[in-house]
Design brief:
Radius of gyration: 16 Å
Order of helices and strands: HHHHHH
Shape: globular
Distance between the termini: 36 Å
Number of strands: 0
Helix content: over 70%
Structural class: mainly alpha
Strand content: under 5%
Amino acid sequence: MRGIWLASGLLFLALGGLGVVLPVLPTTPFLLVAAACFARSSPRLHGWLTAHPLFGPPIRDWQVHGAIRPRAKALAVSMMGLVFLASLIAGLPWKLLLAQGLLIGLGAAFVLSRPSGPRC
């Protein structure tokens, strides 16, 4: 089972890495899943990821406080809005826009409902 957790962690770490350079692919959620997988498979990789100067703080904020920093909240909700706007401009069918709008609304509500954390 440990090998499956490790492979999953590496996969999600790679997806998170892609999210750094691809604007439509989120980084932090993939890194949170990677950290959870590494916690079950590799204490060394888990420690490296949570101590990383760039990726560690948001992961620790989530693990300790269930928090998302205000800047990350603003970026996430802005990107959701831009994706929906692009869908409107592309002229997607109204049923697809309705489904997308509902899902984006739920995602935005979740992100905005999280605490901002003590260091944010």
